[in-house]
Design a protein that fits this description.
Layout: H1 2-7, H2 11-45, H3 56-84, H4 95-136, H5 142-175, H6 181-196, H7 199-213, E1 222-225, E2 228-235, E3 239-243, E4 249-253, E5 260-262, E6 268-276, H8 282-298, H9 300-303, E7 311-318, E8 323-331, H10 336-354, E9 377-379, E10 382-384
Antiparallel strand pairs: 1-2, 1-5, 2-3, 3-4, 6-8, 7-8, 9-10
Length: 386
């Protein structure tokens, strides 16, 4: 009797009621699954209740599980609910056929998706954990090791994630009764095309592999590639990306790198050519420079970035209007410019205080004994030439 009364309503109203009930059930199931995942992750990771929603490693899996459970329940119950409501669809899918498909191919596709997601998250968490563990170590080369770990982790994460997703996609297509042989055949043909026709691409890939393995440059280094300098923002299997001081991004294929100069590997030097006038005593100037370097190295603001005292290399050149004295500071990577600018500022102030003259362009003309210069005498306001 109740069923007959329910069937008296229009088809569209019965369909809306049935689908509304299914959506409500799917929402409740998704919430319960999300709460279960949240409790499990909080227990495994020891995350506090107050920060659990703001932790990406907790928030993202909860969202994925909620969405997956909601769509799964909605897909499984939609057709049976419409059948119970007496709504006949033109799709031709019966609840029995849908159930058979779900517990066969559908269940396998779901498992493939879950395993793929878990593997991708595991790869991301493992690489991130590697960077964090290396960053906690206290050693002089911790910065270099963190840069290397960041570079390798990004390459590994991209390569492994692409491989896992590609394999999962092929397995899912196979469960959907899609013939994957043309895809595999196309991949083989593409491999042959890459081997024979895309020699530049292969060269770039091989160059990127050796660039990373040999630790020539890392993300965060300052380097010059083919004469162009900048901060290394990314190292990919095919390209390396630099951003210069003006913010311009330069992309170099790894196979086209002819010269690579790393300005911040292990340590750096800031070299200064200090020019003084010819009348100054070089020994006195070098003593003043040594005092300036000692004061700078003792400054708490710069002491942590200076690895060795100021090195006085001596008189380096006799130039047109100055004597060049070369000095240098050994600093931590990427700190040479900060220390060097402060060194130049202190040299200028100290030289002014000590009365040491900075040279300026000038030229003395000498005619020799055969052509002595004119002597000018002034008599009564009138100039006369002897």
């Amino acid at each position: 009797m109740d069923n007959q009364m329910f069937l008296q309503y229009p088809d569209w109203l019965r369909a809306i009621a049935a689908l509304g009930a299914v959506v409500a059930v799917a929402y409740v199931a998704a919430e319960l699954a999300g709460r279960a995942v949240r409790v499990a992750l909080m227990g495994a990771l020891r995350v506090e209740e107050s920060v659990s929603f703001f932790t990406p490693i907790v928030r993202r899996p909860i969202r994925v599980v909620r969405a997956a459970v909601f769509l799964l329940v909605l897909a499984v119950l939609a057709m049976p609910a419409l059948e119970v409501a007496g709504v006949r669809t033109a799709v031709g899918i019966t609840p029995a056929a849908l159930g058979v498909w779900f517990f066969a191919s559908g269940l396998r596709i779901t498992i493939i998706g879950i395993i793929t997601y878990v593997l991708v998250r595991f790869i991301a968490a493992t690489t991130l954990r590697l960077e964090e563990e290396i960053g906690r170590a206290e050693s002089p080369d911790v910065i270099d090791r963190v840069k290397r770990a960041r570079t390798l982790s990004r390459l590994m994460r991209n390569a492994l994630t692409t491989t896992v997703v590609a394999i999962a996609a092929l397995m899912a297509l196979r469960e959907l009764q899609v013939d994957i042989m043309p895809v595999l055949t196309g991949a083989g043909i593409a491999g042959l095309a890459v081997g024979f026709g895309a020699q530049t691409l292969v060269k770039d890939l091989i160059g990127g592999v050796f660039l990373t393995i040999e630790n020539q440059v890392r993300v965060g280094d300052v380097a010059k590639i083919n004469g162009t300098g900048g901060l290394v923002e990314a190292i990919n299997l095919r390209t390396i990306v630099l951003r210069d001081l003006e913010g311009i991004v330069h992309v170099f294929p790894n196979g086209s790198i002819d010269t690579l100069a790393n300005l911040s590997k292990d340590f750096s030097y800031y070299v200064v050519d200090v020019g003084v006038a010819y009348k100054e005593d070089p020994d006195r100037v070098m003593a003043v420079l040594r005092d300036v370097g000692t004061e700078l190295a003792a400054d708490p603001k710069f002491a942590a970035n200076i690895l060795e005292p100021l090195e006085i290399l001596g008189v380096d050149a006799f130039e047109e209007s100055q004597v060049a004295i070369k000095v240098r500071f050994k600093t931590r990577p990427l700190k040479q410019w900060e220390v060097g600018r402060e060194l130049r500022r202190r040299i200028k102030k100290t030289f002014d205080a000590q009365g040491i003259e900075f040279p300026f362009p000038h030229r003395s003309l000498y005619f020799g004994e055969a052509s002595r210069p004119f002597q000018i005498e002034q008599l009564g306001g009138v100039q006369a030439l002897p």
